[in-house]
Amino acid sequence: MHTIVTALLWFSAVGCAVMGGVYFAFSAFIMAALGRIDHAAAIAAMNAINTDILKSLFMPLFFGTSVASLALAVLALWHWGNEGAAPMFAGGVIYVVGMFIVTIVFNVPLNDALAAADPMTASSGGVWKRYVSDWTIWNHVRTAASIAASTLFIFALMAWNARSL
């Protein structure tokens, strides 16, 4: 069991960090850059990104890290009282709620609404403006949750493995 938990902690720590980096890029400069260009071009660009991301390595990492984080939260409860269980549990819950649930409940519906918008209509300018604002706010949450979970998994990994020395 020790080896399985250690492997899950490594995978989740790195996976959450990578996901946090992707989300950080969107929060730090991609959405700001898209927000400065013509709304029709920005809508087309974001829709292209949303289409391509579904066919990329992002998706296995997105789902794999979510499942591993959930597993770690459950394993932490199973091993409560052991070194590293508390940060393992917190990391799992923060990631699943702050990244996975936020994505499903907020970002995906916003992406779907943007995909349904006709970029050539006058009303799409308002759709885009709301999208950039709302999507970016929820992306900030995903960024923070991913980075916090990665940090907590690193702490859990150090504590979990220190007990076997």
Query: What about the largest sheet?
Result: none
Query: Which shape, going by the Cα principal axes?
Result: elongated
Structural class: mainly alpha
Number of helices: 5
Q: Give the C-alpha Rg.
A: 18 Å
- How much of the sequence lies in strands comes to under 5%
Average per-residue pLDDT, rounded, comes to: 95
Helix content: over 70%
Q: Point out poorly predicted stretches.
A: none
For this structure, the quaternary state is: single chain
Order of helices and strands: HHHHH
- Please report the distance between the alpha carbons of the first and last residues: 16 Å
Q: Number of DSSP strands?
A: 0
Structural notes for this entry:
- The chain has 165 residues and is mainly alpha-helical.
- The protein contains five helices and no strands.
- The two termini are 16 Å apart.
List keywords for this structure.
single chain, 165 residues, 5 helices
Short description:
The chain is built from 5 helices and no strands.
Q: Could you outline the blueprint of secondary structure elements for this entry?
A:
Elements: H1 2-35, H2 39-53, H3 58-78, H4 85-116, H5 124-162
Helix pairs in contact: 1-3, 1-5, 2-5, 3-4, 4-5
